[in-house]
Amino acid sequence: xxxxxxxxxxxxxxxxxxxxxxxxxxxxxxxxxxxxxxxxxxxxxxxxxxxxxxxxxxxxxxxxxxxxxxxxxxxxxxxxxxxxxxxxxxxxxxxxxxxxxxxxxxxxxxxxxxxxxxxxxxxxxxxxxxxxxxxxxxxxxxxxxxxxxxxxxxxxxxxxxxxxxxxxxxxxxxxxxxxxxxxxxxxxxxxxxxxxxxxxxxxxxxxxxxxxxxxxxxxxxxxxxxxxxxxxxxxxxxxxxxxxxxxxxxxxxxxxxxxxxxxxxxxxxxxxxxxxxxxxxxxxxxxxxxxxxxxxxxxxxxxxxxxxxxxxxxxxxxxxxxxxxxxxxxxxxxxxxxxxxxxxxxxxxxxxxxxxxxxxxxxxxxxxxxxxxxxxxxxxxxxxxxxxxxxxx
Amino acid sequence: xxxxxxxxxxxxxxxxxxxxxxxxxxxxxxxxxxxxxxxxxxxxxxxxxxxxxxxxxxxxxxxxxxxxxxxxxxxxxxxxxxxxxxxxxxxxxxxxxxxx
Lengths: 393, 100
Hints:
The structure holds 2 protein chains of 2 kinds.
Chain A: E1 3-7, H1 11-19, E2 28-32, E3 39-43, H2 56-62, E4 67-69, H3 73-88, E5 94-98, E6 101-105, H4 110-113, H5 116-126, E7 134-138, H6 141-150, E8 156-158, H7 163-168, H8 179-187, H9 193-197, H10 201-208, H11 210-219, E9 236-246, H12 249-265, E10 273-283, E11 289-299, H13 302-315, E12 322-333, H14 344-363, E13 370-374, E14 386-390
Parallel strand pairs in A: 2-4, 7-8
Antiparallel strand pairs in A: 1-6, 1-7, 2-3, 5-6, 9-12, 10-11, 10-12, 13-14
Helix pairs in contact in A: 1-3, 10-11, 12-13
Chain B: E1 15-16, E2 21-22, E3 24-26, E4 34-38, E5 44-60, E6 68-77, E7 82-88, E8 93-96
Antiparallel strand pairs in B: 2-8, 3-4, 4-5, 5-6, 6-7, 7-8
């Protein structure tokens, strides 16, 4: 079984530079977090001495002329998803490990692409050039991942056949385990995979539990973890860019209404229902905003969807002026439609039933809606003639 | 589980409607002459009764421990408003009966 590991370093910076070419060649720092606790998410190679995870204040003092960019995680996610979609279009199974890190199963595809080397070339060609991915090829997920770390940007590296020799001198930081485990390994004086491979697996298990067995096996080049291909979810998206940043909720709602009209008018949504609506906004001089709304039931009507979204947005509006807004419908069902009555009275009754059902779901019990019913219409005492009865159509 | 037909409805199943509302009425000799009509939850205005348009008596459930005995008055106030009041003989209090 052969695997390829796709490694894209500095994906956020590369995405920003590709979007804003003026940033090319300049020291760029992307920071996330809030207030005084902001840390560096990613930095360009020109930002000398700046490392991801470093406090922003320290990073700015290290690199005074750096351009500070607010993170747009939705855009980075998009860029990576498009790269993975392109690989899947080659017919490969892809497992996403992390943002900028994925594993591809090569076995079975070589014949389709005219040999393994051609397949790897096709893989590199499928990914946008600006991402300059590093490709590692190996007999398991871990070996491929280690090989990717040895590859140059935009090139592939095949792990040598003598795995133990290849892995021996490499640092334990390459192991896919939490940093606490790495720190513990350092505490025991284990700094490279060779030292780890020489440890009996029993001793590692005694110290690290189940993870110990994995550590020992990976250090010996044995990786039994199967590849779990990513799941595909059908989505329908529409977006809108504002000429000036918009802070008024009224305008945001109007934008949402028109976006809903656009998505529900698309061919792929015709006669179908969506369960989840996601709003992603690019906020002026602030981190990107993300809001996910799950409908109580699948909705195939933009008016109903808008009423849910409006309610949610009026309660918690966006954190700042929006420059761009994107609406995505997902969890799309194959429901064909709903039979409605031709007669107005019956339709009104159905609408009432629907409203009650929604209220019941929201309140978690019987909604306080009653109707007047005659109890003792013949009574001489007026208060006994009628009563309020919980409404259940 | 299927509900049994004999299951008694919960007390909240029926809510009373048009319950009589206690009212302060000036009635020397049992005849209403002025009514203190509630304007808000805290305030009330006094209105004089200009005429009594109708009177009737209701006696019900005399076989029970707490029989019902009321004398109803349909009155016209000096503001032009028409109200239905009753004097409850059991509690010796005045009430305002809406939608009588």
